[in-house]
């Protein structure tokens, strides 16, 4: 594999010196880009696009052709693991992800098997390898998965939900079955992320989208415990360097210290916490990723630049910050606003970093 021409992301995640704050955007290969929509139309559906390594790599690289981003993230979905378990992932127009065979009883949970990433999820590994070839060392590639609890939410409900009543009923009424499901998911995700790293992912991220809707006690028992299990089990080095792990619980700022203690290299933040306050709370235990409100991207370049300046100033001097949104970019974002964001982060962050030998 070629040497990295730009390793700011990996350095910042390890809290090593960088010359400017690196930036990437959650869901950066997506519907706000006209070229993505053209490729998706050619594929015929989201799932067909995701399961075509060549097309998945094509859309992964599209944002890099437009913007001076510091990372690529492989185009995939957080629900690939339960799909590989046989639950039948599909996307209903206007409804988001759905499963044909949701888990409705303890017997269905007991019958689950951990998929083999080398066969059942081969298309993801092939897409990662294809992305690495296409990137040719320009920037690092991020791999990812949904967290065990977030996967369980979709697996039990059969899709998204306003209140996740089925999930909570199982959690409170049959905690043993819930823990059985979460343990299966955690072991599956660990193997999946290991395979992604083996295929060429240079950093990995765990998306705990729904952990934030739990009470403090239940979050630690049913979400954080299994995030820690994964962080403690997956490989941490490849190609002669550290593979950083980012953990992101949307709505999890209240538990920031607990999240920072599980052994991940970085914690993702949504927009509900001031990043300077977060930095004071975690000290130098982890890097921080975030945390612009995605709706700011719908405003105008001047407003975007002001918000970038506010976040950078709040974090302050030194490394350990990866600029990102506090959640995925909305499909209605004008592409030129992403360019304005990236340029503002790179330009405005220079004064917060001493000159470093960063590629």
What features would you describe in this structure?
The protein has helices at 8-13, 34-43, 46-50, 53-66, 80-87, 106-110, 122-135, 148-157, 165-173, 175-199, 216-231, 256-260, 275-282, 301-315, 335-349; strands spanning 72-73, 89-92, 96-99, 141-146, 203-208, 237-238, 241-242, 245-249, 266-268, 287-292, 321-325. The longest helix is centred in the middle third of the chain and has 25 residues, at 175-199. With 359 residues, it is α/β, with parallel strands linked by helices. The chain has one domain (8-352): TIM Barrel. The strands form three sheets. The protein has a seven-stranded parallel sheet with strand order 1-4-5-8-9-10-11. A two-stranded antiparallel ribbon has the order 2-3. Helix 4 (53-66) packs parallel to helix 7 (122-135) and helix 14 (301-315) runs parallel beside helix 15. The mean pLDDT is 95. It has 15 helices and eleven strands.
